[in-house]
Amino acid sequence: MKKILILNGPNLNLLGTREPAQYGATTLPQVEAMCRAAGERLGYEVECFQSNHEGALIDKIHEYGRLWKEGRALGCVFNAGAYTHTSVALHDAIKGVDGLPVIECHISNVHARESFRHHSYISPAAAGIVVGFGVAGYVIAMEGLVRTREPGNSALA
Ligand code: CA2
């Protein structure tokens, strides 16, 4: 069974505990459970990883780049949090693994917020972007990955 990585960056471990008006009331373990259930329905093993450290996120992208080359991973759904707006290193990591499809995902509509959130270093390296659908965006991004990479998947409506 191929793997899908759900990758979350800094402060997303706080989901559901603060700022519910911006990010909703669902906690990260609940989001991860939603993604695992979607993976089961779609026929993929889901690995969830969150880190507040840029290097740990980079290492995980490299690991999945290797798995993708071996045909053991479908892709990655990535909410890089605030690193979205600052990290050339994460941009380079995605470009560097060359092939692994990464879907950038944001819970909030970053374009309707402060101007410093309008620029993303992830977007030019991403295979697709899901923004502003709340935590449902993670599952929408997973389905997008499957629809575009494995359109014959019989679990798709
Ligand atoms: O909308 C998103 O998903 C963001 O990636 C969330 C980041 C923000 O910096 C991006 O601009 C947009 C912030 C993640 C922090 O999440 C928190 C959740 C609850 C309480 C505090 C922070």
Describe it.
Strands 2-1-3-4-5 form a 5-stranded parallel β-sheet, with helices on both faces. Helices cover 38% and strands 18% of the residues. The protein has 157 residues and is an alpha/beta fold. The chain is globular, with a radius of gyration of 15 Å. Helix 2 (28-42) packs parallel to helix 5 and helix 3 (54-69) packs parallel to helix 4 (88-97). The protein has helices at residues 20-23, 28-42, 54-69, 88-97, 136-149; strands at residues 3-8, 45-50, 73-79, 102-106, 128-131. Bound molecules: ligand CA2. Ligand CA2 binds at residues 11-12, 14-15, 18-19, 23, 79, 81-82, 84, 106-108, 110, 117.
Percent helix, as a range, is: 25-40%
Provide a count of the helices.
5
Oligomer: single chain
What does the largest sheet look like? 5 strands, parallel
Give the distinct bound molecules.
ligand CA2
Short description:
With 157 residues, this protein is of the alpha/beta class. It has helices spanning 20-23, 28-42, 54-69, 88-97, 136-149; strands spanning 3-8, 45-50, 73-79, 102-106, 128-131.
Q: What labels would you give this structure?
A:
38% helix; 18% strand; five-stranded parallel β-sheet; alpha/beta; 157 residues; binds ligand CA2; 5 strands
